[in-house]
Amino acid sequence: MQISNSKSISILSCGWLGESLAIDLLDKGFIVKGATTSPDKKERLSEQGIDAYQLRFENLNDAMKSFLNSEILVLNLTIKDLDLYKQFLPVLEQSPVKKLILISSTGVYRNSEKPVDENSELSESVWVSIEEIMKDNLNYQTAILRFSGLFGGNRKPGRFLSGRMVKGGDAPVNLIHRDDCIKIINEIIQQDVWEECFNCTADTHPSKREFYTKAAELIGVPLPIFDEEEGRSSSFKLITNEKLKRRLNYEFIHPDLMKALSLF
Fold this sequence. Notes:
31% helix
């Protein structure tokens, strides 16, 4: 017999972001199902009170069907194999899932000298195709969250470019802290906002030179080396978050990237 799925959320998968999200939702009273490919991670999730599954995205078996016995699915994968999503879709359609949060990326946009919003020109990224086949499905409602680069916890920006030769030192940085990722997902659920797409990025956009030099200094690692001839470079984009803040009345926990570096 299936359990009630009225307050059940499945998270595929529980990596760096997904595990922290699972713990947060569990604390808020949800029944949380978390999927991982690691037996050690499965044990750790179980110890924290999460209904843990050891699953691979491509294994569409009874365990996957049990995992999908929830009202909400957070699809939080780095897998870029479009065929796997096409194979997964019929299984999802036959599940009790009624609401899907698809974690995507601001990498879907082309580089632009103008600020990039949700209506800006898209690239040929596979994430564009993944978004297309997962949204507008009559079996469930979808919210697409396009996250910029992620940091927080043990993911320290100072290590991202440490000691590397970097082009485009004057180009703007687009990042978002994990705390805000989790809060935004919570707001989507609590406010019941679906059939929308949001850019999720911090308010400020310091230059690569300013941000990553300071980030490296703060944790005592080799500084990045910037190609002075590149300057701003034509390969950049500045992601705007105005729709997110307006539609969800959202206030960032970490709106200022330079100030956020003090956390490390």
